[in-house]
Amino acid sequence: MPVYYLSKKMLEYELNYTQLEKTCLALVWATQWLWYYLLSQKIFLISRMDPMKYMFEKPALIGRTALWLLMLSEFDITYVTQKSVKSRIITEQLADALTKDTKLSREFSDERIMLIIDKRNLTTWTMYFDEASNSRGKGISIVLVSPRDEHIPISIKLDFDCTNNVAEYKACIAGLEAVVSLEVQDLDVYGDSLLIICQTNGNWLTKEDRLILYHAYLTSLMKGFHNISFTYISRLRNRFVDALATLASMVDIPVGVKVCPLAIKRHVIPAHIHMVQIAVRCPDGKPWYFDIKNLISGKGYPPEASLKEKKVLHKLASRYVICGGDLYRRSFDGVQLLCVNEDRAAEILEDVHSGVCGPHMNDKMLARKILRLGYFWTTLKAYCFSFVKTCHLCQIHANLIHVSPTELHSLTSLWPLSVWGIDIIGKVSPKSSSGHDYILVAINYFTKWIEAQSYTSISSTSVPSSSGPTSSVDMESLMS
Ligand SMILES: [Zn+2]
Predict the structure, then answer these.
(1) Where are the beta strands (DSSP E) in 427-478?
(2) How far does the centroid of ligand 1 lie from the alpha carbon of residue 376, in Å?
(3) CA of 364 to the centre of ligand 1 (A)
């Protein structure tokens, strides 16, 4: 079975495409190159996303999407969902390893490549180290990255004078010591000190007296690993560790104080966003698009608007167009959406969600459906969310989850004290002080309650009187 591969470096403007559009582009590009091979064959397309579905379902086919669809129409392509990553690994690899020369030979001379296996070891840790020095002192820092991508930052302030190279050695040694304590066997070390990297790799000799001892200790630490590699990276790629080292050098840490690990979080939205309220209805009774429509129809800005507000309005209005007296908004896929006021919006919501053919869909689906039908208002998503939440029928007929939140255990007994398990221990030797040498143990099946009693002799007459609830158990058969 011949395996053909193609790879292409995306042009600058192509990088702005959405992920789906990039997949479409790859498909179209590949079909053009392999036109001769593909034309007469049935093609099974294995991909993360279905580009064919995307193109066919686009409500307005314009621009490049329409062109792509036309180009693909001559092929017999069937989309197959991707089940295993194995068969796709070559494509992944090729997409990662780009070449500048996008002109590929149609002959595919290198047919020896049949399979590319990802040999990344899942036990390999990564370590970054760096030092920083300024007028306040010296600091070193290490970031350990586990195979599961957990980052462990370590920052140490150096309380003695030393050269930068010594500090770099200290950082590398402190990192290795930390890794050794975690019993890691495979390690990749990255640092921006060319001296340390080259000396540990054996490319450069260590001649400076101060460094010889550090180097010897570092070499002895390296013996504790199965695989260890040292790689030089530029200062730009080592910025996180550099920042931590600078932090350690800047602060004065009192003796005996252990600073807890830093938790660095990432905020993608400003905090004040939570305070923004959705303007449900304009206070003066005008529709929300009143000012936009006025501006586009040439009536100018509202008289009370400030310069800043005028700018915002101007920017907003660029996406709207008036057609037949109605205001439309241009959507991403080229459809003109009719702008509706609040009263009309409520009717549309009701119709689409719970009208004649309304399937009582969830809020996201509802919003998408309304956009697909060609309506728009600014608070569409918030409206859909609150509408679905308050729909009475949705509350009654929604799928109820009947699964118990805790794990279920089978019970042999339906209610407490209904069934008991009874056993006799004996004859016990030596006898107890009261002369008893039999123990009768009864366990309730439901509650696991245990009762125990000792006897001099066990008979069908002596036992039921004392054990009460066991009377239902056939003692005679037990005795025999
Ligand atoms: Zn509903």
Answers:
(1) 438-444, 450-455
(2) 20
(3) 13
* Domains of the chain in sequence order: 13-96 (no CATH), 124-250 (3.30.420.10), 290-397 (1.10.340.70), 420-479 (no CATH)
pLDDT tens for 99-132 read: 555 444 444 444 455 444 444 556 788 899 988 8
Neighbour order of strands in the sheet with 326-330: 320-323, 326-330, 336-339, 375-376
Q: How far is the CA of 330 from the centre of ligand 1 (A)?
A: 29
pLDDT of residue 477: 43
Distance 371 CA to ligand 1 centre (A): 18
What pLDDT is attached to residue 338? 93
Residue 132 carries which DSSP code? E
Give me ligand 1 centre to Cα 353, in Å: 6
**363 CA to centre of ligand 1 in angstroms:** 10
Per-chain residues with Cβ under 5 A from ion ligand 1: 360, 391, 393-394
Q: What is the rounded distance in angstroms from the CA atom of residue 300 to the CA atom of residue 284?
A: 19
CB 191 within 8 A of CB 173: no
CA of 331: how far to CAs of 14, 15, 334, 416, in Å? Answer: 20, 21, 5, 66
Strand partners, 431: none
Nearest to residue 332, comparing CAs of 371, 370, 293? 371
Question: Is the pLDDT at 472 greater than 50, yes or no?
Answer: no
What type of residue sits at position 114?
M
Mean pLDDT of all residues in 461-467: 63
| Distance of alpha carbon 289 from alpha carbon 377, whole angstroms | 9
> Nearest-CA neighbor of 420 among 459, 466, 470, 465?
470
**Nearest Cα residue to 371 out of 336, 321, 325:** 336
Kindly state the average pLDDT of the residues 244-264: 75
